[in-house]
Specification:
The complex is a heterodimer of chains A (615) and B (343). Chain A is α/β, with parallel strands linked by helices. Helices cover 36% and strands 21% of the residues of chain A. In chain A, the strands form 5 sheets. In chain A, strands 11-10-12-13-15-14-21 form a 7-stranded mixed beta sheet, with helices on both faces. In chain A, strands 3-4-2-5-6-7 form a 6-stranded mixed beta sheet, sandwiched between helices. In chain A, strands 18-20-19-22-23 form a 5-stranded mixed beta sheet. Chain A is globular. Chain B is α/β, with parallel strands linked by helices and 343 residues long. Chain B has a domain of 208 residues: Rossmann fold (3-Layer(aba) Sandwich). Helices cover 29% and strands 19% of the residues of chain B. In chain B, the strands form 2 sheets. In chain B, strands 2-1-3-4-6-5-11-7 form an 8-stranded mixed beta sheet, sandwiched between helices. A 3-stranded antiparallel beta sheet of chain B has the order 8-9-10. The longest helix of chain B has 16 residues. Classes of the chains: A alpha/beta (615), B alpha/beta (343). Strand 9 of chain A pairs antiparallel with strand 12 of chain B.
């Protein structure tokens, strides 16, 4: 047997696809963690059906996980993949169009019998494995099911339990192709199945069998090696957006020494934040699963009134329900953080697909004049930074604040050079102090940030009433006076505008400080835009990229930046929202680049858009 | 959280009056409730700064503005939810929820029942006037069927809620009823409610003299009160009437009015606040046209139960987590389980 060729590659994009019961997400996550531990830069994109148990074997039930990793900077999970692993016919049908010509296609042949073809709605006489339709790819056919069963012949496990291990065979085989160690996955399996040693043993056995299959079969397969990426020195971990959001909240509570109360109602794709936080009960965070979205935000407001930092999380449909209470928090001038992990809308929309169509909702979506600060994360790890910022602004300015994430970064992963506690910005707050004097306490007296004092129940001499009715400045007494109302509306706007003095100025991510084309983005489009701008800069196009993380108020220098470019384009996964705000606020002829398909921009789509704008 | 330790300072009903003019209609039953609450609070041995009134929307919900304590006038139906968050994080506070039949049973129905099942240690004063007052006279979820109102010119076709039956169904641990026109009894019930550990639900019959005048007149007016009401007390027989001449016996599970002259007093229903089955019958003491019954309306404490409070359970879980894992170390948490170093 001749030793397989080992070839060096800079980047690889692999997609694992199978039935949602095939353990695809676990396979992808394990591959990701191993790649990360080897020092590759990476970006991932899990893509799964909304149904928990979608009909087995059908296209509706296909779950996918794409990872791009490499020895160079990785911006996105990749457009097309170079390696596609499919566990059944439906997974092949749903994903084959995104495999590059001449790409590696690994199929589990057991997922292509007559029944599988029928479920995938493929004519039984046109089995893709035999009809030549896959000739343009390097096809590797493996009967994964059979090999898994053989490996576990004497394990004493039942057929169902044995078949559950077949994803490990595939993982082992792909590890072999990319010359990756198994150790990290083995220790993860040990942790996962610590109460089921037999299952742990079986998974490891199959994982090793998959690896050995590469070694022992005379597959004319090239093996690849991907060196460490040249990333800034430091200690890294892998992180997804939702866990990063949970960590950012815990960090804000710990650094500020302020108790946090996280009240929420389960909704895709935000629920994982609750799952994570509820594990950290030895930190300064209490979690509360409320009876509905409205109760969640109202309970958070109640906690803030009592001197905790109230936080609530949801996705678009839930945020719609919270709107009235956000108005209340604005009137009360209490700190509150509202997390929106956006998904496709309107209404129930596309629960598991990404979209960034709730920006207008965050900035404007309430009755009356109700300005609320809005910040957004641009990548999985940036969720940590920006939700922390949301907490800081909420407490220091005594206001509700929106933190925007979306399904793409919530579930996506990247390496994270995590900070240390000592590096985190302090969060300043002070409860109002008790008073002996019996003169009337004025709850709406303000400091230089126009923030009122946080006077919490239990403090002697500060008894006061607040509410949703219009109030007189300083006293907080109900007031229907026309001049007072106008004054208060303007004041509440001024309070939000004033935050611009306490946030960083807008920077140019890359490109010249002036030039032909400025690409402006916000949220999860960061990676796609960065990739496309890197590519077009290399081709000599005079393009620059600015990514807005503080959306309300906008950074003070943004207007000046916009003037320095001939053209401004604004790619968004919506029908044009930030672009309208920029046009409105700066009278700039910004053009929207819009994709509303529940998926991210491909780098190529944005390269094309930049080229078109530069002509 | 660092809290100022307060030396408890006595206060009077007068100290609870705010600078705000009370704006309920003259003759409104709310005045009496405000007065009784202001009278009772100084007797409860609670520092004034630890008292919080939270309300929703409606006439009754203006209440916090008239109490010189901490207070929040929140949004329609949500006082219960706001109070839940406050109590979960500040168990030591004395939290009072002020709500009406529309606020708690219609728009806020969901939070209301969930608060009851969680059993936060708070007091709910449910002002039931069987009408929407603040929106000027539409029927409410407790309005009787057939009622002619602004929104029901041909009479309501909605079957009304029985608030106490609903509360019992939601596993409330303290349910009681009183009325605006019987201040002595109301003060007694308010004290009982405050003393109960868990959610205390007090339904208060409250007259809206503008939009639903006389809704409870049978129970409140001297001429009829003694015949139409029965005041229940734990361990005492159910007796009512001008000269306490009537009583209630249970025939199987059917309550019947009897003349005391005709029965052995030992056969009378003895009120037991801890008997859930009997409470189920008691909350359904309404005139029933179908069954042709004519039962007096009960007032007093119907049912009490000891059950752990949500906020205490929450505190216990956090203490257990601390004991098990030690105080959280943020740097360890940020680091996670798998890291790698780039030189």
């Amino acid at each position: 047997m001749s030793a397989p060729l080992i070839e060096q590659k800079k980047t690889v994009t692999i997609r694992f696809a199978g039935d949602s019961g095939d353990g695809i997400q676990l396979t992808g996550t394990q591959f990701t963690n191993t790649a990360a531990s080897l020092g590759n830069d990476l970006s991932t994109f899990p893509n799964f059906p909304a149904e928990i148990r979608a009909p087995q074997g059908t296209q509706a039930g296909v779950s996918g996980f794409q990872i791009k990793f490499g020895s160079v900077e990785i911006f996105t999970p990749g457009d097309e993949c170079e390696v596609l692993v499919v566990m059944n016919a439906a997974a092949l049908k749903a994903n084959i169009k995104e495999l590059k010509p001449n790409g590696i296609l690994i199929v589990n042949t057991d997922g292509f019998n007559a029944r599988d073809l029928e479920l995938a709605k493929i004519d039984k006489d046109s089995n893709p494995l035999t009809n030549g339709s896959l000739d343009g790819f390097k096809l590797y056919q493996i009967d994964v099911t059979k090999l898994t069963r053989t490996a576990l012949e004497n394990s004493g496990l039942g057929k169902k339990e044995i078949d559950m291990c077949k994803n490990m065979f595939v993982l082992g085989y792909v590890y072999w192709i990319y010359n990756r160690p198994l150790a990290l996955t083995i220790s993860a399996l040990q942790e996962q199945f610590k109460k089921k040693p037999a299952i742990f043993e079986a998974n490891v056995k199959v994982l090793k069998a998959g690896y050995a299959y590469g070694d022992t079969t005379e597959t004319p397969m090239t093996r690849y090696e991907i060196a460490k990426a040249n990333m800034p020195s430091g200690v890294y971990r892998n992180i997804n957006g939702n866990p990063a959001t949970a960590l950012g909240l815990v960090a804000a509570a710990e650094v500020s020494k302020l108790p946090m109360f996280f009240a929420t109602y389960p909704i895709t794709p935000a629920s994982d934040i609750l799952h994570d936080l509820s594990k950290h009960k030895n930190f300064n965070v209490k979690t509360f699963q409320a009876e509905d979205e409205i109760a969640a935000i109202c309970a958070a407001i109640g906690a803030s009134f009592g001197g905790s930092l109230g936080v609530t999380s949801s996705s678009g449909p839930g945020i719609a329900l919270k709107a009235e209470a956000i108005g209340l928090a604005t009137m009360l001038e209490l700190p509150l953080v509202i997390i929106n992990v956006q998904r496709g809308g309107p209404s129930t929309g596309l629960p598991t697909k990404t979209e960034q169509a709730d920006l207008m909702q965050a900035i404007y979506g309430r009755n009356g004049e109700c300005p609320v600060p809005v910040v957004a994360a641009c990548s999985p790890s940036d969720c940590f930074t920006m939700v922390y910022e949301a907490c800081r602004i909420a407490v220091e300015h005594m206001t509700p604040v929106f933190f925007m994430s979306d399904g793409y970064i919530a579930n996506g992963a990247e390496p994270w050079k995590f900070p240390q506690t000592k590096d985190l910005k302090p969060i300043e707050y002070r409860y109002a102090e008790a008073k002996e004097a019996r003169e009337k306490y004025l709850p709406y007296v303000r400091n230089n940030k126009l923030a009122r004092a946080w006077a919490i129940p239990g403090t002697k001499g500060l008894e006061h009433r607040i509410g949703g009715l219009e109030k007189e400045n300083l006293t907080g007494d109900i007031s229907y006076d026309p001049d007072n109302h106008q004054f208060m509306v303007k004041l509440r706007q001024e309070r939000v505008d004033a935050i611009a003095d306490f946030i960083p100025l807008q920077t140019i991510d890359q490109g010249n400080p002036e030039g032909d084309v400025l690409v402006i983005g916000w949220g999860s489009t960061y990676g796609s835009i960065r990739g496309a701008v890197t590519e077009t800069l290399a081709e000599g196009i005079n393009v620059a990229h600015a990514h807005i993380k503080y959306l309300n108020p906008l950074p003070k220098n943004l207007g000046d930046i916009l003037k320095r470019y001939k053209k401004v384009i604004v790619p968004e996964i919506n029908n044009g929202q930030l672009v309208r705000i920029l046009r409105d606020k700066y009278l700039v002829d910004a053009k929207g680049i819009n994709k509303i398909k529940g998926t991210a921009f491909t780098t190529q789509e944005l390269v094309n858009a930049i080229k078109e704008a530069s002509n | 959280m660092e809290l100022t330790l307060n030396t408890h300072e006595a206060f009077t009903a007068k100290d609870l009056v705010t600078s705000q003019d009370v704006r309920w209609c003259p003759g409104c039953g709310d005045y009496s409730i405000l007065k009784q609450v202001q009278t009772v609070l100084p007797e409860l041995n609670i520092p004034r700064e630890n008292i919080v009134f939270i309300s929703g929307i409606g006439c009754s919900s203006r209440f916090p503005y008239y109490m010189e304590t901490y207070g929040m006038h929140s949004i329609h139906g949500r006082a219960t939810a706001v109070a839940s968050g406050l109590k979960a994080t500040r168990p030591e506070l004395s939290v009072w929820i002020i709500t009406g039949d529309g606020d708690s049973l219609s728009i806020g129905g969901n939070h209301f029942i969930h608060l009851l099942r969680r059993n936060f240690d708070v007091n709910i004063l449910l002002f039931n006037n069987q009408i929407y007052g603040l929106t000027k006279g539409q029927y409410s979820p407790t309005s009787e069927i057939g009622k002619i109102t602004k929104s029901t010119p041909m009479g309501t076709i909605d079957h009304p809620f029985n608030p106490l039956a609903l509360c019992l169904g939601a596993d409330a641990t303290f349910i009681a009823r009183c009325m605006d026109r019987d201040p002595v009894h109301m003060r007694e019930i308010l004290k009982r409610g405050n003393a109960h550990k868990g959610t205390s639900l007090i339904e208060i019959y409250q007259n809206c003299n503008v939009f639903n005048d006389g809704a409870f007149e049978l129970f409140t007016e001297k001429a009829t009160k003694k015949l139409e009401t029965i005041f229940v007390e734990h361990g005492k027989p159910l007796v009512f009437g001008k000269d306490s001449e009537f009583g209630i016996v249970l025939n199987g599970d059917t309550p019947c009015v009897v003349n005391l002259a005709e029965v052995n007093t030992n056969d009378l229903w003895i009120h037991d606040e801890t008997n859930r089955n009997k409470a189920n019958i008691l909350v359904r003491f309404f005139d029933d046209e179908v069954n042709q019954t004519n039962l007096p309306r009960p007032f007093g404490v119907f049912y009490t139960q000891n059950r752990p409070c949500y906020e205490d359970q929450l505190t216990i879980q956090h203490a257990q987590a601390l004991e098990l894992k030690g105080t959280g170390n943020l740097d360890e948490l940020l680091r996670g389980k798998n890291t790698w170093t780039i030189e």
